[in-house]
Amino acid sequence: MTSDHERALAAFPELRRLADLLDARWLFLPVHDHDGELVEVRGVRAWSGTGIADALMVRYATDAAALRADHTGGVLWQRDGGLADVVEGLLTLPPPDAPDAPRLVRATAPRLWTPRNSARPAR
Is residue 44 helix, strand or coil? Predict the structure, then answer.
């Protein structure tokens, strides 16, 4: 771990939970606003060969959400609340092939927003 990471963890101990997810093979993407300010962190872990993925969105230590979705976008599990509670839920969620893993679709996952092509012809 770099000294920058150590300083960030010292200043914001709740970030250690995100470090726990890194150990569990998660990938993270920071989201910045137009001024370059970090506004959100998104994470994902795909379960190879299953068509199932876990996703995480963190805006603040008290504003986080996670879900597990199947290949059709069906939500199998979800949790929102504080970062520590949401990450704890992810870390204790059984792998998709475990007998006690959630399998019942509860909702439909939100669609990924993609920007429209700004180079459209004028009307």
Answer: strand
Predicted confidence (pLDDT) at residue 33 exceeds the cutoff of 80? yes
Domain ranges of the chain: 3-108
Span 26-51, average pLDDT: 90
Tokens of 2: 């770099």
Instruction: Please give the helix or strand (H or E) that residue 66 lies within, else none.
Output: strand 63-69
pTM listed for this prediction: 0.78
What are the beta bridge partners of residue 64?
Answer: 58, 81
- Please name which of 33, 39, 74, 37 lies closest in space to residue 53, comparing C-alpha atoms: 74
- Across the strands, what pairs with 80? 65
Residues for the chain: how many in total?
123
Residue type, 118: S
Q: How far is CA 31 from the centre of its chain?
A: 12
Token pair of 53 as six digits: 């993925």
CA dihedral (61, 101, 110, 43) positive or negative: positive
